Each structure stands twice: as C-alpha cells, then as structure tokens.
Amino acid sequence: MSLLDPQHLISAFGLLGILAIVFAESGLLIGFFLPGDSLLFTAGLLVAGGTYLHVPLWLLCLLAAGAAVAGDQAGYAFGRRFGPGLFRRPDSRLFKQENLVRAHGFFYKYGARSLILARFVPVVRTFTPIVAGAVRMHYRTFVLYNVIGGALWATGVTTLGYFLGQVAFVRDHIELILIGIVAVSVVPIAIELLRARGRSRETSASRF
Fold it and tell me: Whose CA is closest to 155, among 57, 61, 15?
C-alpha cells in the first residue's frame, strides 16, 4: 500500500522520487501499477501548502514533464529493440499480455494522437510507447507527440493539484483528500486483480 500512497512516497523520497516514479510509470513494463496521476496531483497540493516539497511550481512541472518524456523514450527504445517478441511473452506477476494488447488497440485506433491521449489513461500510458517502438513508428513523429503529451499531462495534473491546494475547503481537509486519492489509486489495481482472478477461474473450469 505504501507504493500507492503518494504522500508517503513524496515524504520518503522527495522530488527525486517523484521523477523516478513518473519515469518508470511512463514507459517501463514494471511501472504500470505506480500512481502517476495521483502522485503529480498530490505533489501540486503539497507545493501549494509548502509541505515536503519546497520548489517552485514551474520547476516541478518542468522536471516532471522531462521525466515523463524520458520515460516514454525508454519505452519506445525497449519496444523497438524487442519488438514482436513482446506479444509472445507469457504472463507473469508484473507483466500481463492483456495490457499490451489493450495498448496496441488504443494505438491503432488513435494513431500518433494515442501518445497524447494515453497519458491520461492509467496502464495504457505505460504500454503505448512500447507499442509505438514495436511497430516502428517514425521516430520524429514519436518525439513530437511524446513531448506534447508529456508536457500536457505533467503540467496539467500538477497545476490542477496546486490550485486546488489553495482552495480553503481542500486545504482544511487535506488529510481526507489524500486518503481519497490513495483509494482512487487502488481502484485500477483492484480491477486488474479481479480480472486476473476471473480469467484464472475460467481457465481452471475449461480444463474439466
């Protein structure tokens, strides 16, 4: 649970921790479960309140956007290097073929725009740059949409948290709101676990 608690992560690892998590969640296979949205939103809240993070908003947004873009670049390079082999990789505790297929469908539905749209869809944003690399998307096109998507996502979510953090009601109930953020962060993971359990039961039933 501590890995899904943005306030705990920020208090424990600070700005460098935020950047590392944003990087990992943006394009590394093992980063899909990390709370990128809620982490940036909470970072904005804490900057507004002067808690844990004592950096200007513009610097936080700039660094977060840079980490997001770099993460997607790593995902693209990984996908380009290993390519179609990823689609034959068996499921494991940290890798589900379903997530890759879902991102693949998202990519083909929206094309280059998927690199922007996927930024706002948990799990899909982790796998979309990997798919882009696997299908050999034109590199310059990838970089352009990657920079736009990373900047919009990191800046938008962080700034939203910052300005809401200056609202009296939010500031007075910050602890309850942070608990709510953690709860929302858990939902996608819980859904994935329930789906995996359902698939396991179906597979077991089909054997008899």
Answer: 61
